[in-house]
Amino acid sequence: MKKQTMIISCVLVGMLGLGAYCRYYNAGIKSEGDEKGKSQISYPLAVNTAGSLVQPQSSQQQEPPPPLPPPPTSETPMVRQLPPKPPHTLTGMTSEVVKEIEQFLPDGAHLFAYPVSNANVAVAMLQADLDSDGKEEFIVVYTEQKSLSKERVPLTLGILENKGKILKLRASIELVGSLFFNTHVEGIGVPFAVLDVIGDHHPEILVVSGEGASVGGWLQLFAFDGNSIKEITHFGGHFFSVRRKGNGTPVRITARWNGEKTSRMYEWNGQAFEQVSK
């Protein structure tokens, strides 16, 4: 009886062990299947701001680098620097001589320089014996501009008397306008000259000045008597000519504005210039 009981107990223990083994084995198979199933599931899709579906990137995936800037094209505007304008060259005298003469002008005054070509300027200074005393005077045109103001300043005609090593401003008079008229006078070719105008064998001073080519200029004639400058006459216009009939004779002056069809002609009558034709 005891022997039969032991056999039944062994059979029961074996059956319990076999059942536990089967449960453990099935649980392992199910777990492996779940892992295989998970590996086959793709990442869920997301929706972008435009409303379309996008595939999210893996956390290990790097973002592409930003694109390089495009190379310059022929349409890209190029900045072109203009070459600086060459400085004007002083003709007729040196800058040292100019400074030496300017020290005898009023304080802050400078000799007036005017263009004679695209690259050259000349200083308005001449020498002549105006009063027949045997000594030459310096005839100059200067400005008394004391600052760097862009406003035009009047021109002044001055006579410097030669006193050996020094010069003395003997007389002065203000001119019309603030610059020399930019057209040469036919017959003499310059806007500033000393010549015998009335045929008395004494030189007079001729200056053509104004405010610019558009408004025209004034041809002015002056005489110096040793003490003061006196205006002989003046003419207005855009075009002037000064011609002499012969040696030792007065000049004939013509003037014309842009709107005039013919020039006005003036001759010296012994006392003044009078208009003889138009």
Q: What low-confidence regions span 5 or more consecutive residues with pLDDT below 50?
A: 29-59
Mean pLDDT: 77
Query: What general outline do the C-alpha atoms trace?
Result: globular
Order of helices and strands: HEEEHEEEEEEEEEEEEEEEE
Radius of gyration: 53 Å
Largest sheet: 5 strands, antiparallel
Relative helix content: 10-25%
Q: In terms of structural class, how would the helical and strand content be classed?
A: alpha+beta
Strand portion: 35-45%
Count of helical stretches: 2
Give the terminus-to-terminus CA distance. 172 Å
Number of strands: 19
Question: What layout of secondary structure does this protein have?
Answer:
Elements: H1 2-39, E1 46-47, E2 53-54, E3 89-91, H2 95-102, E4 110-111, E5 113-115, E6 120-123, E7 125-128, E8 137-143, E9 156-163, E10 166-174, E11 179-180, E12 192-195, E13 204-212, E14 216-224, E15 229-237, E16 239-244, E17 251-256, E18 264-268, E19 273-277
Parallel strand pairs: 3-6
Antiparallel strand pairs: 1-2, 4-8, 5-6, 7-8, 8-9, 9-10, 11-13, 12-13, 13-14, 14-15, 16-17, 17-18, 18-19
Describe this structure in words.
There is one protein chain. The protein is globular. It has helices spanning 2-39, 95-102, and strands spanning 46-47, 53-54, 89-91, 110-111, 113-115, 120-123, 125-128, 137-143, 156-163, 166-174, 179-180, 192-195, 204-212, 216-224, 229-237, 239-244, 251-256, 264-268, 273-277. A hairpin with a 4-residue loop joins strand 14 (216-224) and strand 15. The protein is α+β, with helices and mostly antiparallel strands and 278 residues long. The longest helix has 38 residues, at 2-39. The chain has a domain at 89-277. The strands form five sheets. Strands 4, 7, 8, 9 and 10 form a five-stranded antiparallel beta sheet that branches. Strands 11, 12, 13, 14 and 15 form a five-stranded antiparallel beta sheet that branches.
